[in-house]
Structures are given as C-alpha cells and as structure tokens.
Amino acid sequence: MPNVNSAAPAARLAGFNALGPADAEAELLTCCASRAFAHTVAALRPYRDLAQLTAAADAAVNGLAWSDVREALEAHPRIGERAGGTGRESAWSRQEQSGVDAAERAVLDGLAEGNLAYEERFGHVYLICATGLSAGEMLARLRERLQNDEDTEREVVRAELAKITRLRMAKLLGDQS
To answer: Cross-referenced InterPro entries, in alphabetical order (predicted)?
Structure first.
C-alpha cells in the first residue's frame, strides 16, 4: 500500500487524490476507523486542499450511523492505556494521550475506574480528543460526561471523533500546524 506521507509535503494531497479507492480508504481508516467514513471520503476525491478534505471528513463523521461510530470507537484504546501495535494509528494514539505520561497514580486509578464506569453506562470506550490535555483534565471531563444522558453523550462522542479525525487528517497529509 502506498504511503502518502512518503511524498514531499506539496505533493501529499495530490498523491492521496491519485490513490486507488482501496488504498485511499486504507489511509483514511488510520484517521477514523469506520469503513463507511473511509468509503465516503475516498469516493469524494479529488480534493483541492486540506480544508476541503477536512470539511468532507467532518460531514462524513456527522453522517455516520451510530453503528459506524461504534466501529470507529473500537480502534481507540482506553484513556490511560497504550494502543497496541506499531502502526501509524497506534503511534498517533500514544502521542495524543501523552498527557497521561506524567500523571500521578491517583489520577491514573481514577481514569481506570472512570473508564469502566463509562463503559458500563454507555457500552463503549470513553472517547476524548486528548491532544493537549493533562490526565487530570481528561479525568474531570470523564466525570462530567458520566452525567450525560445517552443522546447527549452520543453528540459529544461524535464531536470528539470529528476533532480526532481532523487532527489525524492533517498528520496524514503532513500539515502539523
């Protein structure tokens, strides 16, 4: 499978646009692990710039059936647990959750307990765009979100998934700004 990140920055979007459908979907799955998302965004190529691609990705995430959101959630490790594997998505997940690296034991224990309570309440992993957040901030937001009703939490999860997807799309195409 071609790797769009192996090209010079100016050519990455053109390289992505030129990929075959299966390869484009494989690249997109590293940003959001929903097959419906990857199929939708790949089918709308070519994109003229990252902003247009990001807008399409946002629309695709917002249009996912809940079962497709759940599929995407299955690729995310619990907050405070490290993603397995050596692929791009695992590396991005470890980087995104780096705020837990220096956390005190009490905060890590709180995250572990909160993750379990969240999963019991909502039936899926607690998803938060962890980039730039400390472990304490992630824990505080987890505790707040445990108070949400199912519909409210689904809206929050979808918004967090969209944020993560936007960040990963930028990484995929080499825009680290």
So the answer is: OHCU_decarboxylase, OHCU_decarboxylase-2, OHCU_decarboxylase_sf
Pairwise CA distance, residues 110 & 64, whole Å: 31
Structure confidence by residue, pLDDT tens digits, 30-72: 999 999 999 999 999 999 988 899 999 999 999 999 999 999 9
Catalytic residues: 76
Eight-class DSSP state of 101: T
pLDDT of the residue at 90:
52
Euclidean distance between CA atoms 67 and 88, whole angstroms: 24
Query: What is the sign of the dihedral through the CA atoms of 101, 107, 109 and 114?
Result: negative
End-to-end alpha-carbon separation of the chain, Å?
Answer: 26
This prediction's pTM: 0.86
